[in-house]
TrEMBL record:
Organism: Macaca mulatta
InterPro entries: P-loop_NTPase (IPR027417), Ras-related_GTPase (IPR051065), Small_GTP-bd (IPR005225), Small_GTPase (IPR001806)
Catalyzed reactions: GTP + H2O = GDP + phosphate + H(+)
Protein name: Ras-like protein family member 12
Cellular component, GO, one term: plasma membrane
Domain of life: Eukaryota
Molecular functions (GO terms): G protein activity; GDP binding; GTP binding; GTPase activity
Keyword vocabulary terms for this entry: GTP-binding, Hydrolase, Nucleotide-binding
Length: 266
């Protein structure tokens, strides 16, 4: 089994194998998931993206002096969560993003948090989530107060941040690194750390009313005990390309982006 999709290790120290962390970014269309992802990976704010493109990026990070091989899935659901298994059983942590100038996106973030809570209950596998109120630079057009964000995060026991993809990089990086810390805490606790890919689709008997209530009708997931589990595909099966970001973009060490499953040129 390729080490890229191998069992994450919780070892520490500069010589240890990098900890492997999968992070999925969820949220309504337009909340700023791609902008935050690209800001974190390249330190740049880019205003236009293909909204239908879903990519997984890979980045070597150092968090608290520990090397981390971080994979970020920038999801592209439409208005509500769809085909969620691709990230529910893959991620070690979630960033749930809404835009402070959009009440609709805030409501959707509540649906995503409900979905994650439901999945955690059904699989008895707790995966940390962080709630992000994005577009803080648009605070004059706020439709969602900070107190509402704090309250929603409190309801689900997750960390909360207000950020902006077009303001300082350090704040965005801090949020992503907090997600890594949360994932690491959970990985150190849990003996079952390997991300699993579930091959069989079978809705739970009591699931329909719950998901329907939260507008998640198209989202099904399974308990670990009743389905066949497969390891995630190896990197050899995924389309892989490495892109070096432009030297002109920054005088600092330019990050190397590894793009899986799709190409995006910055
Ligand atoms: N002012 C401001 N605009 C932002 C910010 N983040 C994203 N945007 C803009 O909001 C729009 C949507 O951003 P995206 O990153 O494409 O949003 P998304 O959540 O990935 O949306 P989908 O790709 O459709 O799922 C784009 O025009 C971005 O430039 C931000 O922090 N501030």
């Amino acid at each position: 089994m390729s080490s890229v999709f191998g069992k994450p290790r919780a070892g520490s120290g500069p010589q240890s194998t990098p900890l492997e962390v999968n992070l999925a970014i969820l949220g309504r269309r337009g909340a700023g998931k791609s902008a935050l992802t690209v800001k974190f990976l390249t330190k740049r704010f880019i205003s236009e993206y293909d909204p239908n493109l879903e990519d997984t990026y890979s980045s070597e990070e150092t968090v608290d002096h520990q090397p981390v091989h971080l994979r970020v899935m920038d999801t592209a659901d439409l208005d509500t969560p769809r085909n969620c298994e691709r990230y529910l059983n893959w991620a070690h942590a979630f960033l749930v993003v809404y835009s402070v100038d959009s009440r609709q996106s805030f409501d959707s973030s509540g649906s995503y948090l409900e979905l994650l809570a439901l999945h955690a209950k059904e699989t008895q596998r707790s995966v940390p989530a962080l709630l992000l109120g994005n577009k803080l630079d648009m605070a004059q057009y706020r439709q969602v107060t900070k107190a509402e964000g704090v309250a929603l995060a409190g309801r689900f026991g997750c960390l909360f941040f207000e950020v902006s993809a077009c303001l300082d990089f350090e704040h965005v990086q801090h949020v992503f690194h907090e997600a890594v810390r949360e994932a690491r805490r959970e990985l150190e606790k849990s003996p079952l750390t390997r991300p699993l890919f579930i091959s069989e689709e079978r809705a739970l008997p009591h699931q329909a009313p719950l998901t329907a209530r939260h507008g998640l009708a198209s989202c099904t997931f399974n308990t670990l005990s009743t389905v066949s589990l497969k390891e995630m595909p190896t990197v050899a099966q995924a389309k892989l390309v490495t892109v070096k970001s432009s030297r002109a973009q920054s005088k600092r060490k330019a990050p190397t982006l590894t793009l899986l499953k799709g190409f995006k040129i910055f």
